[in-house]
DNA sequence: CGATTACTGTACAAACTGCTCAACGAGCGG
DNA sequence: CCGCTCGTTGAGCAGTTTGTACAGTAATCG
């Protein structure tokens, strides 16, 4: 068979494998090979390659924060004093309830996602966040629902079909 | 031993197990039991229970979108015409590059995360998003960096230590 | 054409999994 | 105070999977 071009990080088989693993993550290599109709060694080789290329980072446990008691999610846009972004980011990273921080273009310099157990708890978390030095202005909003939960599936399906 | 209270969804052992699995997701049940110093059956029971309670959803593959060619991430805040939020959310869900949508409080009604392969591609994606009917006003910003990548670890560590 | 690369099929030892069983200890209710 | 129930332990067993290796085939590239 033709050597899979290294220019293309993922081919159709890779995508189908990832889709399969997305749906049933506990599947072993052998079972995957059976379902995909390829040899076991091939599946192993593909997975190794994807790990090597950094596409496949691993199989972390997926937790439901709500079921863990952290039922509230909030977003905050922070405006930071000039040149203090890195420092602020570091401070934010030290707050347990801060689950994600992005530096963005536009007026808001930092975008923060955080969780909390209750309204009172959320208040506390927000206070902690805005109390970080060099934070100029903040705008917070609470997530009411999540029509589209984090997903990658459509992208994979594209790859699986196109190639 | 005392029956583990069902009021507390996670106890210290659960948290330590989840931490272990976060660090080395490929670990089998047997290896986990060895590292935690408990019997294999216990680990199995804990995992079953967490799955039953919905805390542990599974072990999906973690993909690096950047390594897959989708190097750009952007956020959009959409203002929606009255009563059209559900409809818009549905439309957004149909766009492959839309990886996450939240309904939020505040002026922005919907919060969207999307990815793209290049600036041109991003332009196309954004155009697609804002072209959705009933979308009044949009404000988009690009993620420049991610000081704190999505994480749950600190929360787990709290549980592991406190209990 | 020869070299390289990828996939297949096979094989074997080592390890793991799912499952069961008996036993122990700690709370709980009567 | 007793008996029950539940979580945990340690053991065992059959079946399956994993890691690894090797040989054969096929397709691309120079």
Automatic annotation (TrEMBL), chains A, B:
<feature type="domain" description="HTH asnC-type">
    <location>
        <begin position="10"/>
        <end position="71"/>
    </location>
</feature>
<dbReference type="InterPro" id="IPR000485">
    <property type="entry name" value="AsnC-type_HTH_dom"/>
</dbReference>
<dbReference type="InterPro" id="IPR011008">
    <property type="entry name" value="Dimeric_a/b-barrel"/>
</dbReference>
<dbReference type="GO" id="GO:0043565">
    <property type="term" value="F:sequence-specific DNA binding"/>
</dbReference>
<dbReference type="InterPro" id="IPR036390">
    <property type="entry name" value="WH_DNA-bd_sf"/>
</dbReference>
<protein>
    <submittedName>
        <fullName>DNA-binding Lrp family transcriptional regulator</fullName>
    </submittedName>
</protein>
<dbReference type="InterPro" id="IPR036388">
    <property type="entry name" value="WH-like_DNA-bd_sf"/>
</dbReference>
<dbReference type="InterPro" id="IPR019888">
    <property type="entry name" value="Tscrpt_reg_AsnC-like"/>
</dbReference>
<dbReference type="Pfam" id="PF13404">
    <property type="entry name" value="HTH_AsnC-type"/>
</dbReference>
<dbReference type="InterPro" id="IPR019887">
    <property type="entry name" value="Tscrpt_reg_AsnC/Lrp_C"/>
</dbReference>
<keyword id="KW-0805">Transcription regulation</keyword>
<keyword id="KW-0238">DNA-binding</keyword>
<dbReference type="GO" id="GO:0043200">
    <property type="term" value="P:response to amino acid"/>
</dbReference>
<dbReference type="GO" id="GO:0005829">
    <property type="term" value="C:cytosol"/>
</dbReference>
<keyword id="KW-0804">Transcription</keyword>
<dbReference type="Pfam" id="PF01037">
    <property type="entry name" value="AsnC_trans_reg"/>
</dbReference>
